[in-house]
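User: ok so my PI wants both of these folded by tonight, can you help

Assistant: No problem, let's get them done. Here's the first:
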Amino acid sequence: MLSRIVPSMEKRYCGRELMDDPSSDEQALRATLRQFDTINRFLTRTRYLARTFFGPYVAAKRGETVSLLDVGAGGGDFARWFSAYCRARSVSAQITCIDTDPRVIAYARETCADYDTIQVVNCPAQRIDTLERRFDFVYAGHLLHHLPDEVIPGVLRNMYEVARKALVVSDVGRKRWVYVAYTLLAGVFLRHSMAFADGRLSIRRGFNTDELHHALCLAGLEGRLRVRALFPGRVYLAGSRTTPR
């Protein structure tokens, strides 16, 4: 009976999400981007990961400036939060957000318009090298599940190469209980957007720790980044390249 209600999570689903369709409804897309702020605040643990892996470096830079690359920036909510997090610690954060959907870029620029330290540019994750610079921190939240398996190792390698101090890559854990829990929560709280349908597809397109570790090995980064699961229903790769000082 369960298999009829909850799809198999044995392998990654390869179907496209609504928000990845350039012809999808723009108002529904914008509503989804607005809801990302709530989703990321309460469900994804992105702030916890940033405090854990970036926080010690920020604390050591009082009165100075740090830089962050946000890969797949979506609505810009993480960039805005990180800017405020640094400012509260007397640190200036110069943040570059990249995405490829013109509609998403336009929305992120609108929401970040009051932050002169945040810029949003059109750049695919596969071409980070074209930015021709490195950043203290590199962050990617819910990016990898939008990508086909064959390009993920290269993207991981690119992000690692441009990170001077620390890298965090967080995504969805592909588990049936996560699918059921999200279905119940999103059905009540995330209406009038793509978040219900796409969130469930995201879980089916997500990863387990073995798959992320395999991608890490293919990228030539085994031993340089850790792969962990994180409640509720998250998996991540993260690591530091230098000691905070």
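One down. Here's the second:
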Amino acid sequence: NSISCCEQLEREKEGVRVSLEALFQKLQEQHQTELQQLEERLKEFYSAEWDKTHEAYQREADKCQALMQQQ
């Protein structure tokens, strides 16, 4: 009877281990997906910021050039 009890506990232990490994794998994949999404959002944000900065610089350069041509 104690042997069957030990075998039952071993089966339950294995079941829990398999479930935890599956959960861990799922969480790892979810984490990786979230990291990729965050990286993409950051790239989009900094690209937009770069574009705005470049446009502002170009406007100022155009103003300076226009002033120099007026003189």
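The chain has a mean pLDDT of 97. The first helix runs from residue 2 to 70. Good luck tonight!
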